[in-house]
């Protein structure tokens, strides 16, 4: 049997089997992305349609060049502050578009410089904390939308905003503006989403081929249109619905696109803004693909440097045709994964649907109630932050659990990037703590009334081990025999070496006998029976550490 043909057949079978899930994932993420693209553009101080442009570029262009199986790119809330500051400092949106394209060039350069390696230094506990934090924020921020208060963008990853208007204020306003139609749509939507997960529903094959989110959106529109007929005064309208710009002609549609102002290439502020956009967008992308890889049922690994290049190409194209900066977005990616996406086709479908809808279906999309979309996001948030994740990290020990909880809490209280930074600092503390405790292995024996101590050094002894080594050597009693075993050490930092040398110079004053061992561990007997036997056995191995 030809192994190549066998591989091709198995790939084709798998490719066909994942098509339905990819269609569901791309469709659901598209439905969620439309209002969020608009909301982020609005918050960034950019034209509304620039968010849609960034969304379709993220799906089609980045989706084409990226090697991530499940990540979906587009405008993201973490870039709002950077984009808003850049537009204000540059004074014009076309100049900002030039900075966005230049940011893409910087990202491509970072990819070739292999800067993506930074993603390997984020602990899994921090990444899981990021996902859980985003999940909790999604849950909390959807509650006002479920009762008909739709003044805030659902993807703004911050509960407490700088201007003082926070989630508590939103809840207070929402309670005073309860909307019966929105509550009805939300209740029906949540019921459908929950029923679709029940085993009885999963056994009905034809139902599983229909995205639950699509059913939610269709029913949401239908209920609101029925209310329009029965009680027009109660119908949802305005900011209770998706608000996509509608062009009245083909020329009007192309007029929604904007070209960069290339005359600004001599403006130093353009380069400063480009660098800020590139750094924040790259960090967001690396965090998002790491998180998406953890959500991937097939546990595939995305090449980080290739992803930086793909994101750079995306930002070049987005800036050139009038879109705001983009990056990999964990909210949309997780929505897609939960809907059944298994390959990058979901991202391409996502982008294609955005393009088609912007051209042909804006009036249909503008009938979708926010309450229906909020239900989809709330269920996604629940899956990201379910109790089982907290229990799993707790069972793995405090060195995993505390950085996880710190990341979640910091994200809830501040913002995404600050939360990640806090989580990293807490994780680093536990790394230093474990290094301090376990830098050396110590065995203590009694021989002839004197204490004998064997210190086995680790493979890589960094400067972080200096503190524990100083404490250990200072505490050695007088008249002891000390063996320092460097057999397994491939590197010992000079600070640690100096500490040992200083101890060696003063050991004789305390009648401490110091021996350095070089013989392989597996060939050395456990402990010599006498001091004289030990000296004879290791006579040739006694030397000064240099």
Automatic annotation (TrEMBL):
Localization per Swiss-Prot or TrEMBL: Membrane
Domain SLC26A/SulP transporter positions: 19-395
TM region(s), chain numbering: 21-42, 48-65, 129-147, 167-196, 208-230, 271-292, 312-335, 347-364, 370-389, 401-432
The keyword Methyltransferase belongs to this UniProt entry's keyword annotation: no
Membrane topology field: Multi-pass membrane protein
Entry keywords, A to Z: Membrane, Transmembrane, Transmembrane helix
PANTHER family: SULFATE TRANSPORTER (PTHR11814)
Protein name: SulP family inorganic anion transporter
Organism of provenance: Larkinella terrae
């Amino acid at each position: 049997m030809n192994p190549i043909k066998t591989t091709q057949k198995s790939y084709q079978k798998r490719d066909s089997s994942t098509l339905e899930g990819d269609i569901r994932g791309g469709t659901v993420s598209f439905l969620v992305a439309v209002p969020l693209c608009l909301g982020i553009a609005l918050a960034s101080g950019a034209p509304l349609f620039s968010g849609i442009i960034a969304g379709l570029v993220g799906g089609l262009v980045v989706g084409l060049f990226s090697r991530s199986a499940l990540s979906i790119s587009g405008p993201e809330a973490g870039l709002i502050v950077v984009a808003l500051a850049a537009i204000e400092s540059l004074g014009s949106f076309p100049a900002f578009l030039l900075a966005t394209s230049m940011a893409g060039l910087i990202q491509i350069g970072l990819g070739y410089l292999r800067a993506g390696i930074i993603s390997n230094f984020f602990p899994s506990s921090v990444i899981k904390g990021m996902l859980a934090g985003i999940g909790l924020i999604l849950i909390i921020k959807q509650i006002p939308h479920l009762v008909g208060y739709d003044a805030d963008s659902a993807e703004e990853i911050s509960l407490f905003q700088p201007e003082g208007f926070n989630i508590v204020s939103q809840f207070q306003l929402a309670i005073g503006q309860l909307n019966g139609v929105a509550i009805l749509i939300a209740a029906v939507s949540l019921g459908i989403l929950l029923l679709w997960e029940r085993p009885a529903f999963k056994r009905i094959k034809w139902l599983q081929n229909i995205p639950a989110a699509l059913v939610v959106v269709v029913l949401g529109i239908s209920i609101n249109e029925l209310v329009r007929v029965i009680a027009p005064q109660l119908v949802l309208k305005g900011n209770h619905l998706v608000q996509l710009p509608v062009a009245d002609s083909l020329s009007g549609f192309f007029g929604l696109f904007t070209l960069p102002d290339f005359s600004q290439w001599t403006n130093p502020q353009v380069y400063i803004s480009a660098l800020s956009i590139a750094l924040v967008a790259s960090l967001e992308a690396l965090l998002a693909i790491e998180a998406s890889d953890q959500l991937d049922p097939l546990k595939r690994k995305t090449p980080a440097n290739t992803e930086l290049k793909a994101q750079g190409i995306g930002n070049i194209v987005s800036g050139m045709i009038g879109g705001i900066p983009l990056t990999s977005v964990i909210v949309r990616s997780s929505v897609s994964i939960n809907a059944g996406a298994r390959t990058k086709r979901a991202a391409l479908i996502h982008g294609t649907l955005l393009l088609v809808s912007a051209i042909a279906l804006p009036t249909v999309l503008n009938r979708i109630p926010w309450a229906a979309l909020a239900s989809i996001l709330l269920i996604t948030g629940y899956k990201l932050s379910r109790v089982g994740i907290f229990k799993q990290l707790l069972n793995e020990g405090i060195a995993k659990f505390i950085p996880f909880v710190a990341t979640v809490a910091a994200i809830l209280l501040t913002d995404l990037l600050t939360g990640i930074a806090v989580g990293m600092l807490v994780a680093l503390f536990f790394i230093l703590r474990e290094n301090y405790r376990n830098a050396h292995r110590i065995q203590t024996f009694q021989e002839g009334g004197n204490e004998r101590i064997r210190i086995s050094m680790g493979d890589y002894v960094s400067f972080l081990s200096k503190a524990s080594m100083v404490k250990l050597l200072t505490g050695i009693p007088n008249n002891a025999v000390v063996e320092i075993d460097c057999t397994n050490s491939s590197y010992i930092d000079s600070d640690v070496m100096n500490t040992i040398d200083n101890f060696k110079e003063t050991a004789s004053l305390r009648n401490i006998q110091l021996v350095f061992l070089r013989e392989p561990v597996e060939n050395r007997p456990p402990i010599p029976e006498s001091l004289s036997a030990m000296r004879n056995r290791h006579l040739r191995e006694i030397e000064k550490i240099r």
